[in-house]
Amino acid sequence: MAKKKLFRFQQNAQAFNVIEQGKELYTTIKGRWNEVYFKNNFPITLELACGQGELTIAFAKNIPQRNFIGVDIKGARIWKGSQEALAASLGNAAFLRTSIRYMEEFFAEGEVDEIYLVFPDPQPKQAQYRLTNERFLRLYQKFLKPSGLLHLKTDNAPLYHYTLDTVQKLGGKILFQTTSFYESEMKDAHFGARTFYENHFIQKGEVVHYLRFRLD
Ligand SMILES: C[S@@+](CC[C@H](N)C(=O)[O-])C[C@H]1O[C@@H](n2cnc3c(N)ncnc32)[C@H](O)[C@@H]1O
Predict the structure, then answer these.
(1) What's the rounded Cα separation, in Å, for the pair 183 and 96?
(2) DSSP H or E segment with residue 115
(3) 23 Cβ below 6 A of ligand 1
(4) Structural domain range at position 66
(5) Among all residues, which ones are annotated catalytic?
(6) What's the Cα-to-Cα distance from 78 to each of 73, 93, 181, 182, rounded to whole Å?
(7) How much is the pTM?
(8) 202 lines ligand 1 (CB under 6 A)
(9) How far is CA 198 from CA 106, 151, 208, in A?
(10) How many angstroms separate the alpha carbon of residue 169 from the centre of ligand 1?
């Protein structure tokens, strides 16, 4: 393994804000995030496929009365968000390293208030892996509060339209939609935070699409 990756994994192992395999909380935290980790009763927001966790960090800094958890399978990416949260003493931010497929093992019914999906892989050829396909949306419903909000930010028009169709097919409600986030009323809603992939796509001239919806 590359030295840099190994160093990041070692730091993750030491970091209390990274919940990952091998740590006690990894198998005991379901239904207890607020009691055991955050030690408050604030609403919980997830950033799924968070990568380096830029939104989790920006939100945690700007919204102290909410708790934020970035989830990603890649430890070397989560490391960045974890270290930033530690440096800024953000007690309302945590990172969970797991596959999103196993989310039910970490969150109990109604434990989560809001979910962000920010530039997830569009999976053009494999709809079964899209994080907004019917199977994943049904999975999120198992731990999201009934009126909980979901957000999708993507440069990928096919994924945006696929998600719109899937939400409508499931009887969900689209609350806001735009094919041009930075020209919409939402443009300042994320405190100016831009993720690694967002910057990458914007530099390539892509436009950010955004959806806010509910699954009732
Ligand atoms: C295109 S990147 C976007 C990362 C970040 N949101 C950004 O905008 O910079 C997609 C991320 O999804 C993560 N990912 C993909 N499938 C996943 C899964 N099933 N469970 C957890 N993470 C996953 C990858 O590890 C990667 O970090």
Answers:
(1) 33
(2) strand 112-118
(3) no
(4) 3-214
(5) 121
(6) 8, 12, 25, 26
(7) 0.98
(8) no
(9) 28, 15, 8
(10) 25
